[in-house]
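Deliverable D4.2, example record:
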Amino acid sequence: MNTERNASQHHTVAILSRGDAAARRDATPQNSRFVRVFEALASVGVEARPVIYDEIFADAVRDQLLAVDGVLVWVNPIHEGKTRAALDRLLREVAARGPWVSAHPDVILKMGVKEVLYRTRHLGWGGDTHRYDSAAAFRAEFPSRLRANGPRVLKQNRGNAGQGVWKVDSLPGSDAAVRVLHAQHGSLPEDIPLEAFIVRCEPYFGWGGCIIDQPFEPRLPEGMIRCYMSGSKVAGFGHQLIKALIPPPPEGPDSPEAQPGPRIMHGPDAPSFQALRRLMEDEWTPQMLETLGIDGPSLPVIWDADFLYGPRDKSGADTYVLCEINVSSCFAIPDEAPAAIARTVRDRFMRT
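Output generated by the structure prediction step:
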């Protein structure tokens, strides 16, 4: 089929998110949190349909997904104790039977997990990053690394909202005790035996598969930069003063001073982020694709890379350290992102 004919065809996509039976019954494009994405897709001639997923009505969801040309997925790795294990099996089945799925579960397993920090540690966004593949390896290797290198940040392979992310520091005068702080909102620093903390982390070697270990970045209080991508192009930025892994003030974790600042959104042309844009589009994304064995068209229609400020270089310019890639459920997004998503979806259909 040639491009001109394909571009004129009518295409349909499902916008898939998690919800209960009531949300499924009442779902419309107009009452969806993705309403701007629905509107942007319509503007390029793509019909989008809301589909609500839960394991209890997975069979009905399967039928809906097999009736469209593409599936755009916004479902967190972990939600109220539920993982994506069953959904990922369903999406693989759907993709094998024809519809295009973004992000495909196999792509998520390559770039949307914390292991990507280890596999791409040689890129300009990487550093002193380690991977523990088993509880035994973690117990054998982590204590000496902590003593030798100072505060570390540990991350379970799959998670969201700070679940399974810890700052760990040795307590002065003791090799057997540590001070830990969980990244989940409301957490308080805790002094515990190192062995007890190691035992606490053992469940992370289940569904997630490994633990990733990075240095704690001292410039964390300066905020996190979220670089939003649609395919291989920057769709915008968000800058936020985060409070995760920063000890709460004396007033406690629920005080106003302990709350993260708003994420200030910027378009892709924001002057202060053009150095990062050039790195992402021209260097790091192509290098990541090569390293992970992902072809360009398989990149998600929306994903983001979260960066912390690293040490300034010799000229005084900022450097950036990758702390996470979000692929499973990248939302909220900048005002410019829905149009970028629509263009990526349109171009994806034109290539097939």
